Amino acid sequence: xxxxxxxxxxxxxxxxxxxxxxxxxxxxxxxxxxxxxxxxxxxxxxxxxxxxxxxxxxxxxxxxxxxxxxxxxxxxxxxxxxxxxxxxxxxxxxxxxxxxxxxxxxxxxxxxxxxxxxxxxxxxxxxxxxxxxxxxxxxxxxxxxxxxxxxxxxxxxxxxxxxxxxxxxxxxxxxxxxxxxxxxxxxxxxxxxxxxxxxxxxxxxxxxxxxxxxxxxxxxxxxxxxxxxxxxxxxxxxxxxxxxxxxxxxxxxxxxx
Length: 257
Fold this sequence. Notes:
alpha/beta, Rossmann fold, 4-stranded antiparallel β-sheet, 9 helices, globular
């Protein structure tokens, strides 16, 4: 660490922005690393581009959580996108990111972005046939984020998606959170016709290996329907898109009934 640039406690959590020697500025919530300037591109590109390219032509996307703005930035690289709704429960996360992490949050000022300070679970509950893509960019399954990993929430997401819609949720590390991955995969598979797990390497997350779970109503992510390949990516490319679904045996074993 170099220094703590900012710290505050909201009604939901403690927020800190820390400057580090190896990874630059870092967003920390309740002592847990959420993103860093050095490696954020891996997580944000993989949580966004896998569903965006799997879909034939996504126009409307919803991001739940992700108040740092990284997932929104990646979604807006697609020219057909008309609107991105960001639902973040803690407005102070958004404000801290805008102030200290402009490399990540700059796209939050785009005219296509609709910022909603609200509970993502309640927001989804009232929707039907509304979005092409829903991304759950949540914190760890503790506190207000715990409900974002529940069966009723995934059922609500299914209703909120259009007939060819896609869900992607971050689902933690297979080394540290194996049982969570097993449970969430089973819950999403019970709702969506097609369910897949994929992986990416994020150095500042526990164990460095991170998982994402995709639920699709129609499209197969191994046969991407989108023709647009996003520009200016550092991690994601068409080969990574396919290879990220190739799972080590110990991860694949978690998904067996």
